[in-house]
Design a protein that fits this description.
Length: 564
């Protein structure tokens, strides 16, 4: 029997063939409608025409019979782009199986990575076939987005299980996606984490992050072999409804310690943000097949740009200009990233190197793990883990309506309307732990003010998903609405929390300046008593959020010298 590779719920083992593997070969196969759902192509099953198949650089389409041919080299992953209205097979962990690894010899002799890489595939089969089944897909749908769940220990896998996963059971979503840092360097946690996330009950895609690399690999190409073994190619695309999703690998692993017994193989490792020429060529070839009126959503780990640290190579993509050039001419674009453990919005326009008809919106998401599972424990034993920007940990729901996309932040364990925090800053110096120890928790945040403090007090609003297009205003009782101004500063609430709970916060976690705080002074004329602040905020997607804060004023009016 001739050798044939079948893409089904698992990758089928290949029959051995004692032939030498040439540097490049012609791969052939068929993309077929799997009528009996067994993952195996039968001649009675029809081919699916017009499906994109790629070797990671070139992209070809299947012919009228569903057949394709494309050049592959050892080390390549062959994959298809799932078309709209079709589903690919899933593993028992709800992981999509749409790829074939052509790695004839597996891990090169003499190099054993710390975590298991891709098993030897043997010689190239005569036919590499991909199964599809018909599945209607609406133009309006919801998907789940995780940024940086990043468990470092087995206990932290349980935090994810008991926190985000448990409250998403039964969610009506088309699929989920994790934007990298799936774990925190311990890649042996992949299977257990996948089994738990699978309980949500939707197909789950993955993006590689800088903590998903095997730090004992010899080079960047091999650094993601464990990721590839578990989840597939590091970059790929798929269609759902009328949306084209493009998963990117924006982590370039580098350094002279690769391939050695690094004394700290779980350290951060040498890396930078980048895409690379081969991936850029694939993106251009992939998008040539996508109509210009389609919404294209780019999913990545390291963001194209960080507003809070624009010069740092580890949090910005060095060759983003080439990507922006490929994207020019498209009006329906959204880029979504993780990595930062803070929320940011940035808009690429002509001033920032993008000449598209409308700016390209980059939305960097808050992390599922917040501040790396730090902080005091809640009643379930899960760390509160507020992020460094003061936002709660959480996940996102992307809501699609045709060519329009919006992302809604959901703080885990909180109501859906938990979108901001209101505090008062009376101007008292509170950066010192020595000062804070003399006050109750939160006492310096202005919940109760003296009349003499009113002049120096400012209202602060941390709009967790706010950005440059957001509008925030407040009013007290029936008073006039006061427009607030966006500032870059540290949220005093999380600053105090991290100082007071330093024994529960991981050593590298510190409060950081954020771009989503608004401030304004209190209005004149307030008198002793209880007062209610009402904040009305319009976010980047045009949604209106409302929140309230009650504070008290005590004491007498400040002394004023008599006027002669």
């Amino acid at each position: 029997m001739k050798a044939r590779a079948l893409i089904g719920t698992t990758l089928v083992a290949l029959s051995s063939m004692a032939t030498l593997v040439p540097a490049a070969e012609m791969a052939r196969g068929v993309v077929f409608e799997d009528l009996n759902a067994d993952g195996t192509f039968q001649e009675s099953e029809p081919g699916v025409a017009g499906v994109a198949v790629s070797n990671g650089k070139e992209v070809v389409g299947t012919d009228a019979d569903g057949r394709y041919r494309i050049v592959v080299e050892p080390g390549d992953t062959l994959f298809l782009t799932k078309p709209s209205g079709w589903a690919v097979p899933l593993s028992s962990e709800e992981l999509p199986r749409f790829y074939y690894h052509f790695v004839p010899d597996g891990v090169p002799a003499g190099r054993r990575p710390r975590y298991q890489g891709i098993a030897p595939s043997g010689p190239l089969p005569e036919s590499i076939d991909f199964a599809l089944t018909r599945r209607p897909e609406p133009t309006r749908f919801t998907s789940i987005w995780f940024a940086d769940p990043q468990p470092q220990t087995r206990d932290e896998v349980e935090f994810i299980r008991d926190d985000a996963v448990a409250e998403l059971i039964g969610a009506e979503a088309a699929f989920g996606i994790t934007l990298g840092d799936i774990t925190y360097d311990d890649l042996s946690l992949y299977p257990r984490l996948s089994r738990n996330i699978a309980q949500i009950g939707v197909p789950w895609y993955h993006v590689p992050g800088n903590h998903d690399v095997n730090k004992l690999a010899a080079n960047d190409d091999e650094a993601l072999d464990t990721f590839r073994r578990n989840f597939g190619p590091p970059y790929y695309s798929f269609d759902y409804g009328q949306v084209h999703f493009v998963v990117l690998d924006t982590v370039m692993y580098e350094g002279t310690s690769l391939g050695t017994d690094d004394p700290d193989p779980l350290g951060s490792g040498p890396y930078k943000g980048g895409i690379g020429g081969r991936q850029l060529a694939w993106i251009a070839n992939d998008l040539r097949r996508v109509p210009m009126d389609r919404l294209v959503v780019l999913a990545m780990h390291i963001p194209l740009h960080s507003e809070t640290d624009p010069e740092e190579p580890k949090v910005n993509v060095a060759d983003r200009a080439q990507l922006l050039e490929v994207l020019e001419g498209r009006e329906h674009l959204l880029a979504v990233a993780g990595h930062m453990h803070i929320a940011e919005h940035y808009y690429f326009d002509s001033d920032s190197g993008f000449d598209g008809a409308v700016p390209l919106h980059l939305h960097t998401l808050s992390a599922v793990c917040g501040s790396w599972w730090s902080g005091p424990l809640d009643e379930r034993g899960v760390p509160t883990s507020l992020q460094r920007d003061g936002a709660p940990r959480g996940y996102y729901l992307m809501e699609i309506d045709g060519a329009e996309a919006t992302l809604r932040f959901q703080a885990t364990g909180k109501p859906a309307d938990c979108q901001m925090r209101i505090t008062l800053d009376p101007g008292f110096p509170r950066q010192s732990v020595d000062i804070r120890r003399d006050y109750r928790h939160g006492e310096l945040l202005g919940n109760r003010l003296e009349m003499s403090q009113l002049y120096s007090t400012r209202v602060l609003v941390n709009l967790f998903e706010g950005g440059p297009l957001s509008v925030v205003e407040f009013q007290i009782a029936d008073g006039r609405a006061i427009k607030m101004h966006r500032v870059v500063r540290i949220d005093p609430f999380v600053e105090e929390l991290f100082q007071r709970e330093s024994d529960t916060v991981k050593s590298w976690v510190e409060a950081e300046p954020t771009t989503h705080i608004w401030e304004a002074p209190l209005p004149d004329g307030l008198q002793p008593g209880a007062h209610t602040i009402t904040v009305r905020a319009t976010d980047e997607y045009g949604r209106v959020h409302t929140a309230h804060k009650v504070f008290e004023i005590s004491g007498m009016a400040p002394f004023e010298a008599p006027v002669d």
